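hey so u asked for the seq, here:
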Amino acid sequence: MNDEEADGVIALERQLTDWMKRQPVPVEWSIMAVGISAARLIYGVRALQGDNAGIEAARLLRNSVNKAMRVFEQTSISETRH
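ran it, structure tokens below
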């Protein structure tokens, strides 16, 4: 994968993320879709910059997903109380 191809993948992933933000879907599906997009980006990063960059990208993804799940869980708890 060259730089131009990677830029194309990144642009497509941004479009997908923007589209998901506009959809009235449950948070769980949005989180999964973003995870799939991120996995594709990690593959691209690894292909362009090597395993260490891919490992770091995966670590950042895990942290982001964990934070998103904590927010989702807190929102679910708040909604249950009301």
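The mean pLDDT is 72. The helical segments are 3-21, 27-49, 51-81.
lmk if thats what u needed
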